[in-house]
Amino acid sequence: MIKLGVLISGTGSNLIAIQEAIERGELDASIELVISSRPNAKGLTRAHEHGLKTMALSKELYDLGAQAADEIIASQMMEAGVDFIVMAGYMRKVTQPILQGFPNRVINIHPALLPSFQGAHAIEEAWLKGVKVAGVSIHFANEVYDQGPIIAQRAFDVPEGVTLEELESLIHEVEHKLYPEVLQKLAEDRVRIMPDNTVRILD
Ligand code: GAR
């Protein structure tokens, strides 16, 4: 059983998918704390509905610099006894206080097949390019945004004539399955970062 701390900024659909996998007994984990970078994030309401403990950080705090916010996040997550920090639609870069406090224990989900379409607008950029294959990546976060060691990816063929909204919902569908599956592998201690910074999943 692993203890998770989840970072969100928006609707929190991945957070809820993770929590529902826990409730169904498919993921041997618990969510100890949810921290939002936005006080009005919809995900906070949804977290409360599932009885999760939450905290929101203000824009003023982030305005002081990412380090100030990350020191608070790291100390709150440590106090909550968290093993892994799970970024689920967290639209800020994590910095040293979090990365040093949780070395190789910060995970991110990205709505594209990295290293393609890094950044905050991945789905729209992929759609505008007319990609024929789209997908989702889950990776360890490090100091370089969207470039940490890749743990898992899942791809699918993009249907002809798909709208942006349709592509978004296809991607979210994949995310909601893949994130709990990857976290379960972490719970089973089957994920290893190799010396060359690639990730191996043990049988
Ligand atoms: C997800 O699609 C996630 O992959 C993406 O934000 C969305 C959040 O949805 N993250 C990024 O783009 C990070 N660069 P959610 O709040 O409903 O989970």
List its traits:
203 residues, two-stranded antiparallel ribbon, seven-stranded mixed beta sheet, 37% helix, 9 strands
Q: What do these coordinates show?
A:
The two termini are 18 Å apart. The chain is globular. It has helices at residues 13-23, 42-49, 59-63, 66-79, 96-101, 122-129, 164-187, and strands at 2-8, 29-36, 54-56, 84-87, 106-110, 133-140, 150-157, 191-193, 199-201. The protein is built from seven helices and nine strands; from the N terminus they run E-H-E-H-E-H-H-E-H-E-H-E-E-H-E-E. Helix 1 (13-23) crosses helix 7. By secondary structure, it is an alpha/beta fold. The structure holds glycinamide ribonucleotide (GAR). The site of glycinamide ribonucleotide has 16 residues, from helix 1, strand 5 and helix 7.
Report the average pLDDT across residues.
97
Helices, by number, come to 7
Largest sheet: 7 strands, mixed
Structural class: alpha/beta
Which ligands does the model contain, each kind named once? Answer: glycinamide ribonucleotide
Widest beta sheet: strand line-up: 3-2-1-4-5-6-7
Q: Would you count the extended β strands for me?
A: 9
Ranges where pLDDT stays below 50 over 5 or more residues in a row are none
Give the end-to-end Cα distance, rounded to a whole number of Å.
Answer: 18 Å
* Shape category: globular
Order of helices and strands: EHEHEHHEHEHEEHEE
Q: What is the radius of gyration?
A: 16 Å
Strand residue content: 15-25%
In a few lines, what is going on in this structure?
The protein contains seven helices and nine strands; from the N terminus they run E-H-E-H-E-H-H-E-H-E-H-E-E-H-E-E. It is an alpha/beta fold. The structure holds glycinamide ribonucleotide (GAR).
